[in-house]
């Protein structure tokens, strides 16, 4: 893990912030299942009473977190998304949700960051799964500074929070207040937030891709790093009375569809959801860049889909279409 072009890497920033977070929050306990332990050896040595490594037992990791929370501690649980959410989903549902206790789950790997590890290490459905459970907040930061702010803030709270770290990142940090923010208005100007031009909502690390993809298109670009619960009031304010909207998410296409539909239920709207397609599975290794291109989540793919929306056409959300 390293920063490219001086931009902080989200996972590296998470590891760097752990020690000060544990110092500031003596009730916090880092819970691992081997993955990540090699990056926080100094923290483990300095604060052995605040780190638990359960071994390669992800379901047990969530059970331990639930027990710690019941005992008044603040568990910070970390591994790859496919193991943290998918493999341990029943424990997340029961040991945390059903018992109504809080935890801060922090994943790495995103949808296909570890594409060389094969399908076992890919988790495009993680945010959809967490969003299906009551009482959770999901943060998808797009920059290392956002990771740091979220980690320090949520470690001091008691809620159920999922933070999704990705190797993809934006050049600049954005606000992490849970709101939908207008980042770029249409090139012709106009009152920010009051335009009726089509809107493209970028989630987390998709912002720079969206800005590049739409650089000369007559659309506004907005950002949120907190897709769940979605800032529906902010979305409504920006969308206008007859919205033409594209939502670009770095995971399963349509993950935010229900929230967006509810927010715009009283308005005639045309909405496109761009993400990892639901109706096909890429059974190849390749690089994360290869996967982004195959799924239409690189700048060229996003551009094609947004242009189709602007032209009134339906873009086929499937690999190779």
Automatic annotation (TrEMBL):
What is this protein's record name?
Answer: Transketolase subunit B
Q: Domain of life of the organism in this record? A: Bacteria
Write down the Pfam families for this protein, in alphabetical order. Transket_pyr
According to the entry, every stretch annotated as the Transketolase-like pyrimidine-binding domain falls at: 8-173
SUPFAM superfamilies cross-referenced by the UniProt entry: Thiamin diphosphate-binding fold (THDP-binding), TK C-terminal domain-like
SMART domains linked to this entry: Transket_pyr
């Amino acid at each position: 893990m390293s920063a490219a072009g001086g931009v902080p890497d989200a996972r590296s920033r998470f590891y760097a912030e752990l020690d000060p977070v544990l110092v500031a929050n003596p009730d916090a306990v880092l819970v691992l299942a081997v993955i990540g332990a090699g990056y926080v050896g100094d923290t483990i040595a300095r604060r052995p009473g605040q780190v638990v490594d359960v071994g390669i037992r992800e379901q047990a990791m969530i059970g331990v977190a639930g027990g710690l929370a019941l005992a008044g501690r603040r568990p910070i649980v970390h591994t790859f998304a496919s193991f943290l959410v998918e493999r341990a989903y029943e424990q997340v549902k029961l040991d945390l949700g059903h018992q109504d206790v809080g935890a801060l789950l922090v994943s790495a790997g995103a949808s296909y960051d570890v594409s060389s590890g094969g399908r076992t290490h890919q988790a495009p459905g993680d945010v959809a799964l967490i969003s299906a459970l009551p009482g959770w907040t999901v943060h998808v930061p797009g920059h290392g500074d956002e990771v740091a702010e979220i980690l320090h803030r949520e470690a001091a709270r008691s809620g159920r929070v999922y933070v999704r770290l990705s190797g993809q990142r934006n050049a600049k940090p954005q606000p992490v207040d849970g709101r939908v923010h207008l980042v770029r208005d249409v090139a012709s100007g106009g009152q920010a937030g009051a335009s009726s031009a089509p809107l493209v909502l970028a989630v987390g690390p998709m912002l720079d891709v969206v800005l590049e993809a739409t650089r000369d298109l007559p659309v506004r670009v907005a950002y949120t790093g907190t897709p769940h619960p979605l800032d529906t009031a902010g979305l409504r304010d920006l969308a206008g009375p007859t919205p033409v909207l594209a939502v670009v998410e770095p995971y399963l296409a349509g993950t935010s569809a229900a929230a967006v539909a509810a927010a715009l239920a009283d308005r005639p709207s045309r909405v496109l959801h761009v993400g990892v397609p639901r109706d096909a599975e890429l059974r190849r290794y390749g690089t994360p860049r290869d996967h982004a291109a195959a799924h239409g989540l690189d700048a060229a793919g996003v551009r094609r889909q947004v242009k189709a929306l602007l032209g009134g056409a339906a873009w086929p959300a499937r690999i190779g279409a």
